[in-house]
Amino acid sequence: MAGKEDLKLLGLLVSPFVIRVRMALSMKGLNYEYVEEDLFNKSELLLKLNPVHKKVPVLIHNGKPICESLVILQYVDELFTGRAILPTDPYERATARFWAAYIEDKLCPAWIGILKAKAEEERAEKVKETLAAIEHVEVAFAKCSNGNVFFGGDSIGYLDIVLGSFLFWFEALRRMYGLEIINTSKTPLLAAWAERFGGSVEAKEVVPEADKAVQYANKLHAAAAVKLVSSE
Amino acid sequence: MAGGDDLKLLGLWSSPFVLRVQLALSLKGLSYEYIEEEALVNKGELLLKYNPVHKKVPVLIHNGKPVCESRVILQYIDEAFAGIGPSLLPADPYERAVARFWAAYIDDTMLPVWNKSSMGKTEEEMAEGKKQSLATAEVLEGALRDCGKGKPFFGGDSAGYVDVVLGGLLGWVRASDELHGVKPFDPERTPLLVAWSERFGALEAVEPVVPDVSRLVEFGKMWKARLAAAAAGASN
Predict the structure, then answer these.
(1) What residue stretches are annotated with the GST N-terminal domain (chain B) (predicted)?
(2) B230: which of A77, A171, A201, B181 is 20 to 30 A away, CA to CA?
(3) Which residues of B make CB contacts under 8 Å with A?
(4) pLDDT tens digits for A128-141?
(5) What is the number of other CB atoms lying within 10 angstroms of the CB of residue A48?
């Protein structure tokens, strides 16, 4: 069990990337100071500690910043003992990293693209991409879980956190656009997994209600509309 | 070299991502069988079998099991062959996080704008790409200066993970001036990166592995011509 560590997390309650880090810290039994950022009005601290991307999450450990959620997850896993987040076997770690990269590079831009789309055609395109990507992830679950209930085996691991952090946003997209990214007919394994993940102690601690995500999406859309108007 | 380890690498001579894996294997002194995709008759089949998700090279096949995605492969090599040759990633967890951050920066931020500058769909897009490329190179220069702390490589005294990730691009960096009239590493604005590329390129484990620049230029010219023809054909 980690002793008193100086840990601070710059975050946003509705950010899935931040939620990933909070889950990991919680799983390791670590206490930290949480600072909610206003991304429309970024703090000096955020700009100073993540000058390259100016994004959350930023984990500050003993004054030193670590950025990028997947980098932070691996950092927390390697530095602190307790529950393992990534598998220990090198081949299983490679498989986990492969799918995390897939989720980040293919699935993530697609579903975020649904929110950002400025026209129906663009949105339809992004929906198609999202549904295609999630099918690959369904196959991944079958392979990685090995008959177990989570990607990580019988308890939550790296991929569960990486994908699970998106679930409340998927529910928000369902409420906003009637879109079911994960459903029992097309992606039955993921549908069952999503229930388990959502009902877990780890998720309940840090994952917000989907409505918070809907509210935030409306805020983003309103801001984008203002920008468009003011640029005319 | 570990006995009983069967290593195969499915690659393409011109791919910077494949080159990264070759550089890592070379730095660690690991032997492997190289299978050139271009020379394969059944490449579609092989790629579908070993990389069904992306159908791309590089694929490292270790004792029959495939590992895909260059940065995943690099970390796999480092972990599976931990006792052999130098380590690619630093031992300290914070330094590892910094290395992973910059590797991600190279692929997610720098590469897309480099591609835009040479393969953008319009003159405007390419010009924007060139501007952004200069900016990202300057950020990377800062990383070498601040994280490297005056040491010869991103990895410190010897080449490591970030050096290999960036090093995979070396052939194309060299070819870029002749192909696109652009120096990704400008001697005035990014002198440390220029010095780094010469130093890295001269390493015993690196020099024989990097593809011939003139061959890359020829390939690049042919590729550009193909793209232009496709664009012309599409607009008819």
Answers:
(1) 5-85
(2) B181
(3) 53, 62, 65, 67-69, 71-73, 75-76, 79-80, 93-94, 96-97, 100-101, 104-105, 109, 139
(4) 999 999 999 999 99
(5) 10
